[in-house]
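Here is the promised in-class demo. Please do not try to memorize the tokens; focus on the logic of going from shape to residues.
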């Protein structure tokens, strides 16, 4: 199976699979995602070992995941896309990309003319010669 975004060169072990742990809230919004790369010949890790490591790494990043739910993702998924968790089905769902305008840069909004009050005229003072 070819796994996108991961390549090996030389005599490096082949990537067998990539598992993920998706930490999400009750609504299915993913708050933290951890990827676990399994190489050819490597001993499998238990979910509990992965959870301990992930919680330690997340806390080091000031990200407390202790109150979030966890989904263990074993099947391949698109790493480049945004995802959420379907809480009822217990699966990872790919979200569609946000709509972007056709032009790379959107036109600037039109400025409204500023209404100004006419300036009050000051009396002109003449200098007297000494």
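The designed amino acids, position by position:
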């Amino acid at each position: 199976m070819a796994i996108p975004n991961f390549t090996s060169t030389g005599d490096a072990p082949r990537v067998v699979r990539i598992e993920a742990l998706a930490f999400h809230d009750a609504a299915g919004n993913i708050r933290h995602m951890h990827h676990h790369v399994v190489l050819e010949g490597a001993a499998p890790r238990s979910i509990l070992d992965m959870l301990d490591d992930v919680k330690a790494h997340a806390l080091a990043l000031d990200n407390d995941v202790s109150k979030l739910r966890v989904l263990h993702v074993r099947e391949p998924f698109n790493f480049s896309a945004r995802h959420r968790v379907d809480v009822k089905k217990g699966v990872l769902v790919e979200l569609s990309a946000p709509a972007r305008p056709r032009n790379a840069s959107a036109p600037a909004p039109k400025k409204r003319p500023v209404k100004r009050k006419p300036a009050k005229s000051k009396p002109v003072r003449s200098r007297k010669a000494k």
